[in-house]
Design brief:
The structure is a homodimer.
Chain A lengths: L5 E7 L4 E7 L4 E7 L11 H16 L3 E4 L14 E3 L4 H6 L2 E4 L5 E4 L2 E4 L7 E3 L2 H8 L5 E5 L4 E7 L2 E8 L1 H11 L2 H4 L9 H11 L8 H4 L2 H7 L8 H19 L8 E4 L3 H13 L3 E3 L5 H14 L4
Parallel strand pairs in A: 1-4, 4-7, 5-8, 10-13, 13-14
Antiparallel strand pairs in A: 1-2, 2-3, 6-7, 8-9, 10-11, 11-12
């Protein structure tokens, strides 16, 4: 297989380095992984680190085509890429991408981020999720949730990513699970298949003022424990259900879905399972989505970047 | 002054020990402080630690009357005191208190906690704030906010604490300020006198769906920084205004106040200032409250416990 037939899709995040060697159909040929996240790479050393990591593939395939989306193109990454304003098509993203040539002859394409200027009070932003959305496919209307530290809800229509909003669900869950009073009492990680997780989602969705808002409902993880109704092993599951459920509640209240709608969930298997369980609890049907959306999207954008006429 | 004229009010919390020597009018005669919180006292050692700490006062005044509210009477404290159900009067609290005699002849009265069984899905609880409320005074209707890690809103009517709800505002602020992405970027502590704090409160109170719910608005601390509109030194002030403002929003939405109402804020000076600023932003007038409500309340409950006929 010659160099022109393979592409390296880079997932170079804050705390890990992952690279996927794929063919033109996004079939995975090989992968490589290390703990050398962008956080641990000194300025000016990115090219050398990448070159070393891809040496075996370069030996087999010659100079490589590489494409990178996400945090590697951020202020704390290698090159700070701009944010393309939504609505945006894959062609818009490709047009704003930037390709650099590396010392060994590899060509690296950075995908830009996406911004939604309708957000108040500041434009909302994503880096990486736009590529997952392209990989999911923009060929039919869809509401897509991309769970994570900063979870995104996005609307696809007319072949473009029309708009999106961020929910800091993962960050709120992690900081409370690891640093609040819970951290000292809880004895098990969250499990979205547990009754406690479903009770958390149910509490998030409960109407009426007796339960209060989010700041009051969060206290129920503690009062349930004090009342002997929530066991230490259930606390993180309950918190997870409550916080993810609250994301769905806020999404519903700000017009992202109505009961009975269909959504798609795109991301890592574990989080897709958590969000699918929550969506079904909220009477949503969940559309199947490819597990390799990030790779498919990166491949598509890099093809468009190289051949704008396609 | 004989032993019968003075009382020791104990504020023995998780991470600090404080004791106040007061006369029958709650006038402060002396105080004592150490870092020996209940967390660091082995089971069975509380009496000895307390005895050592109060030795100078015992020398001067003989065997002491001591009263303790709050976490020292919790599951992780010295003795686990029950929760009295609301509505509760000072007499109800005194009747459920418990007095033990210590080896040196001191008599220590533990104040019970308070529970509100109308909370959903589990009874809400407070420990210590019921004593502050008694010290604030239950002789006229009032809505009282007691800010803290677990902030309380309480309603006083007919000489009793009628009901209350907890908001985990302080815990959410602290965990996000110290452990989220903010912790790495922010360069200054929160300042409630800053424009950034007021902007945070304003964002919490903003209507319309463009801003999203709390999980989306929290992201604006980051997007404002990315957009160059929020400086690193302003980030914690903005977060503080947003989270405290959100507490007020949830309190308003669950019926705790309407525009133009009067509330009181009881607690430590710093937090009283933060909550007073927020209340005024929300068009509330703020009633003056005694700074020594905790001492006054403890004294009152211990007098009632010793002389139930009063």
């Amino acid at each position: 297989m010659s160099a022109s037939d393979v592409t390296v899709v880079l997932d170079w995040g804050t705390s890990s380095f992952r690279a996927f060697l794929v063919d033109g159909n996004a079939t995975l040929l090989d992968s490589s992984e290390s703990a050398q996240g962008i956080q641990s790479v000194p300025a000016g050393e990115h090219a050398r680190v990448l070159s070393d990591a891809l040496k075996p593939w370069r030996g087999r395939h010659g100079a490589l085509k590489i494409v990178a989306a996400g945090m590697i193109g951020s202020r704390n990454g290698w090159i700070e890429m701009p944010y393309v304003p939504a609505p945006a098509t894959p062609i818009d993203l490709a047009a704003a991408s930037r390709t650099i040539e590396l010392p060994e002859g590899d060509r690296l394409t950075f995908v830009p981020g996406l911004t939604d200027r309708t957000a108040y009070p500041f434009p909302d932003v994503m880096r990486g999720e736009e590529t997952q959305l392209v990989g999911f496919g923009l060929d039919r209307p869809a509401t897509v949730v991309l769970p994570g530290t900063h979870s995104k809800w996005a609307r696809i229509e007319d072949g473009a990513i029309q708009c999106f909003r961020t929910f800091v669900t993962g960050e709120v869950f992690a900081t409370l699970a690891n640093h609040s009073f819970l951290a000292k009492v809880a004895t098990a990680p969250a499990d979205h298949r547990s009754a406690a997780f479903r009770e958390g989602v149910s509490l998030a969705m409960a109407d009426g003022t007796e339960a209060g808002g989010l700041l009051t409902r969060l206290f129920a993880v503690r009062t349930g424990w004090l009342a002997g109704k929530v066991q230490p092993a259930e606390m993180k599951s309950r918190l997870s259900g409550l916080v993810v459920g609250w994301e769905f509640r806020e999404a519903r209240d700000t017009g992202w879905f109505r009961k009975g709608d269909k959504i798609a969930v795109v991301g890592d298997d574990d989080l897709v399972a958590v969000y699918t369980a929550t969506a079904e609890f909220c009477d949503l049907s969940v559309e199947a989505a490819p597990a390799d959306a990030a790779i498919r999207g990166a491949l598509r954008i890099s093809e468009l970047a190289r051949h704008p006429a396609e």
